[in-house]
């Protein structure tokens, strides 16, 4: 084949891939909107599930509240822990060996399938620590899912801040805290935020970590640490696997996706505001 | 009477050796830097000038693998590397302006006061006054007085360099080490910085690394000429630059000026 034919084929391929990259998310979005959009209304958002079988009517408020609380509490634990570990690894650990070993462990942790976190959480928090199937047990598992992602992105963010900044700051005779809080954190803020968005998206959308640790088929909507909660992904799972209502399942999926989109947009707005 | 005529030197450096990992960068530095004088450090790129400044300001250990592998440094008669004042106080007293200007991610105003605020909490009105004073000293006040709240990174490189000098000065050091402070400046700003050095030299000691022989002549009275990690020539600036004994220094000085 001539160079020209190759060139055309190449362009065709690149063009097609580009189209796929745009069409796939848009297509899925439209499909969700088409199928879930008609059920989506205020009542769906603000009512609890009704009907027989349960969930075929009514709304998903308890699942929204449950997912929100699980993620929020999980993040409240994982964020300081992840950033703290990252600070330790990039600022205080002197041994390069320890650093790369820790890094290997954390990366493996991030690669563990989330159902295994669920299993661990069930054995450890629910049974051994006798927390029972509860919001707190599920939140802790959520925290374990988010922790390695936040740690890795924070550490990469810290390492991306040139060592010269460290030297320039510390050469003024200030202490480590001052340097970390006023220069390092500020310089790496947007990257850490991107990591948090990634972690939250990952955690909020997965059913596996909370399936055995926090989720129930029905709750009236009360949110208490010691009580189980409904969540969006597990509700979706029940609706489909029990054949309750396809339409409501799509509605639930749409709410989950919109929730994540809203969260990502808030993060983006925050980032743009900070930059100015 | 003898001791009155010869005050203790600012820095007494004896047989100083510094390595980066396996690579020896400074081998056997010996010099006394006089107090109340400006010392210029000259020498080709890569010969260890910045490294020496890092030793003096005790930031060498922030470079991975770097260490002092031999010799002693005294600051005002006390061992610098295990000084009773501790590392942070030494870094405050022996300030440094690094080779590359790096404004911190905060406003111009906060950049100036970054170290000063840490070391002594000042009231807001006093702070404004200090910001004005130090920006004025480096000739930056007129250029930035209307945008003190905008980020330091918005300035041009030359302005950033002067901002960093202001930041180090606001810290009120006893000694100021300057690593090529005029490398990104136009002749006008360079002249301002040189004037500043001449004004400051009565209050604080200054050590300046420069590639500009004429600048060394203008601002310094003591001079160290580095070659490959040792001092090839030292003494009064005029002496070193007018009739150096070392053949390589001679070649460089003649080549550059004649
Ligand atoms: N972080 C580092 N790790 C390893 N080697 C280094 C490091 N920094 C500097 N060096 C080496 O140490 C030697 C001296 O460096 P230094 O920065 O002190 O030179 P310099 O005289 O300041 O040069 P210049 O005029 O270009 O600034 C150089 O050979 C350099 O390659
Ligand atoms: Mg240098």
For CATH, the homologous superfamily of chain A is named as MetI-like
CATH class identity of chain A? Mainly Alpha
Q: Which spans of chain A have pLDDT < 50 for at least 5 consecutive residues?
A: none
Anisotropy-based shape of chain B: globular
Proportion of residues in β-strands of chain A: under 5%
Number of strands of chain B: 10
What's the average pLDDT of chain B? Answer: 90
Work out the count of structural domains of chain A.
1
CATH class of chain B: Alpha Beta
Order of helices and strands of chain B: HEEEHEEHEHHHHEHEHEEHH
- What percent of the residues of chain B sit in helical stretches (DSSP H or I)? 25-40%
User: Which residues of chain B form runs of ≥5 with pLDDT under 50?
Assistant: none
| First-to-last CA distance of chain A | 53 Å
State the fourth-level CATH superfamily of chain B.
P-loop containing nucleotide triphosphate hydrolases
Average pLDDT metric of chain A: 89
Strand order of the largest sheet of chain A: 1-2
Can you characterise this structure?
The complex is a heterodimer of chains A (276) and B (258). Chain A has 11 helices and 2 strands. Chain A has helices spanning 3-36, 42-46, 61-92, 96-111, 114-128, 135-160, 163-170, 176-205, 208-211, 232-241, 246-275, and strands spanning 49-50, 57-58. Chain A has a single domain (63-272), classed as MetI-like (MetI-like fold, Orthogonal Bundle). With 276 residues, chain A is mostly helical. A two-stranded antiparallel sheet of chain A has the order 1-2. Chain B has a single domain (11-106, 166-257), classed as P-loop containing nucleotide triphosphate hydrolases (Rossmann fold, 3-Layer(aba) Sandwich). In chain B, helix 4 runs parallel beside helix 7 (157-170). A 6-stranded mixed sheet of chain B has the order 6-7-8-3-9-10, with helices on both faces. Chain B has a 4-stranded antiparallel sheet with strand order 2-1-4-5, with helices on one face. By secondary structure, chain B is α/β, with parallel strands linked by helices. Chain B has helices spanning 2-5, 49-56, 87-93, 108-119, 124-137, 141-144, 157-170, 187-200, 213-219, 237-242, 247-257; strands at residues 11-20, 23-33, 38-42, 66-75, 78-79, 94-97, 175-179, 205-209, 222-227, 230-236. Chain B starts with a helix and ends with a helix. The A-B interface holds A 162-175, 178, 182-183, 186-187 and B 57, 59, 62-63, 88-93, 95-96, 98, 100, 102, 104-106, 114-115, 118-119, 164, 167-168, 171. Adenosine-5'-triphosphate is lined by residues 20, 25, 45-51, 63, 99 of chain B.
